[in-house]
């Protein structure tokens, strides 16, 4: 009920919640069929106490935004391997704003060239995680940043 | 907390058919926050339906249960398609268990369902269920009521049914559909047979797999023993899209029966009274059972029952005693 300032427990350690669970939608946009990486992240975040809504492969910006809206998610994690991130991410951000969901934090994972990272951050992405980022790093980032849109 | 203003705003937006407000209210309900306000909102919407809902077809609440992996989400996805084809709106509450240790949950039902971002008549919400397998989330009844008040004609609940959860789900759902699948070799285990008792309808799912006829035959002998109520058994394959229309038809039939059966309406009214009023009411000298009986026998209307309750509650103000 009360949102207490979040301290980051040691990674991997469970934390029985005195605050509502953080909800994150994980989705893959684009045509490639590799979901191993995103599934590892999904399990890792679950084990860290998140409520992970796995939206799966082959999502479009439209379907992702609909999912975020109906799931009332706090975060959206996008995995993009196809190289089309510079068109897909802006589209998602635009649709989120259009839907009145600008409070939702967006993180991007996948294969993103170094030079595109600042552009994505500029557009409003909260953080870009390269392939093989250790889960605890993602967890720590989300915990430290979890806005409280839904915990008001 | 200071969010009286916020909840009031949400309720107004909900009444104006704002989908985001619905989504937010579902979250609050799932957390047990602002329950009074939400109940009030739902009650008001019931009395004065939102735009375009007057004369809309009757409401269905269907639970789809069965062991992990039996194909619940896939089937729900197919049902969404069939129902949309028929022009009915449909909302889904898809439940997955939450870890008792970390509170975390991997909610993976929705990716088996069609994503129809352009279709406002479909709503899917994933829910974590604390309390292990078989349980259903707290306040799911209120969430169902919100979805109905928003105008969804069908509400489908996906739950891993195994044990006590099933009886809980009965209170919310008009029809409980139990899924089983062909199993390599063995006979149906007897624990499973116990589950058959709570089902209104049994689906032999994945009927495209070998052994479906055998399972069906076994189930038929188990559920249709002399003296037991008859439970329809259907074969369905989501992969081959077989048996889906028939399933919807059967659900319709069962739902209309459950609605007209006085006993289920009675049970609901009783639950409501028990849960919310009885304690306080009886402390004030009220006699809840008496009221329920009057209602059953038609001597009292809903309104008269509530009037009596409210009057007594009102008389509890110190000056009245
Ligand atoms: N052969 C066959 N397989 C099916 C059918 N429907 C679903 N499956 C498969 O069954 C597996 C489980 O499907 P889900 O829909 O996730 O099952 P579930 O009951 O929702 O699973 P949980 O939510 O984890 O309890 C998947 O691999 C599906 O492809 C069907 O009609 N025939
Ligand atoms: Mg499922």
Structure, explained:
The complex is a heterodimer of chains A (152) and B (321). Chain A is of the alpha/beta class. In chain A, 36% of the residues lie in helices and 20% in strands. In chain A, helix 1 (36-47) packs across helix 5 and helix 2 packs across helix 3. The longest helix of chain A is centred in the middle third of the chain and has 14 residues, at 85-98. The radius of gyration of chain A is 15 Å and the shape is globular. The relative contact order of chain A is 0.19. Chain B is an alpha/beta fold and 321 residues long. Chain B is 47% helix and 14% strand. Chain B has helices at 4-15, 19-30, 35-47, 72-85, 140-150, 164-172, 190-195, 212-223, 244-260, 262-283, 288-296, 302-314, and strands at 60-66, 90-97, 105-107, 122-129, 154-159, 175-180, 201-204, 233-235. The radius of gyration of chain B is 21 Å and the shape is globular. Strand 2 (51-59) of chain A pairs parallel with strand 3 (105-107) of chain B. The structure holds guanosine-5'-triphosphate and magnesium ion. Guanosine-5'-triphosphate (GTP) is lined by residues 66, 68-74, 109, 112, 160, 205-206, 208-209, 237-239 of chain B. Magnesium ion is lined by residues 72-73, 109, 158 of chain B.
